[in-house]
């Protein structure tokens, strides 16, 4: 079960061209392409005629022509041409998804289109801000999205899983502060007077002791923004070397997820060698996460009914986020006509 009334990252802007491309979001196959003026379009990747994937077809003008019998769907999803006859059947249309293109990401709304508000797409401007340098990755994680959310909300795993890159024992030795505002859960960890993590130390030219900080903001259910960095001991965070890690987490199905990752930094912005080192180092971090979560997914599937997670104090953010996610799912279930309890009809008077 997925929260559908939300925006999910479906692709990088550069991946969407005139040639249709397929993405599956919450088990919904979607074809993405651009019209002649460059506007990105998202249609159900299933031809109205006989369900051939539109992404196997080609764009003609602003429409996409099915590669099987040539039905043509306009950017609004309405069929504009049936080559074998002059009349267009009324039902010849495909679902059009609300879409927002912002800061290099293509977001699609998978639920009730009438509820889609582009203003709800979170702030990700660091990815395109010239004051920041950004490296990106996208990775298919063979696990449910829940495991990625938990992973990002409990960064003590860095001490063990990412020892050579961003980890250190001092991470789990410091506690967290958890705050909730609407559907956003923030988990903050301050680590005073510690060394910079190995992956960044050289780029930051940071030797000695600093205050290190992590603050994960989880916009349930689709995006984690990690505000991280180091500053001089006792100094305000804004003065320091700052990192914004944007993690767009998109369900493919119950056991697979897309992970859209952008790492923006405000230091060494013009340092191409640092960018290259970070690109490689962060790929290692993501690979370590992907391997661990794939193994965890298998563990979850093997786990007998009645065995549950053992949550500890460091899971404070995990617990809060799960509660919000459950409430969002329940709200959608209650709102769905298929799930509404049908009131018995009142008996007719004779
Ligand atoms: S399946 Fe697309 S035109 Fe026939
Ligand atoms: Fe990790």
From TrEMBL:
This is Aromatic ring-hydroxylating dioxygenase subunit alpha. Residues 7-108 form the Rieske domain. The keyword Magnesium does not apply. SUPFAM superfamilies: Bet v1-like, ISP domain. One of its GO terms (molecular function) is monooxygenase activity. Keywords: 2Fe-2S, Dioxygenase, Iron, Iron-sulfur, Metal-binding, Oxidoreductase. It comes from Arthrobacter wenxiniae. CDD domains: RHO_alpha_C_DMO-like (cd08878).
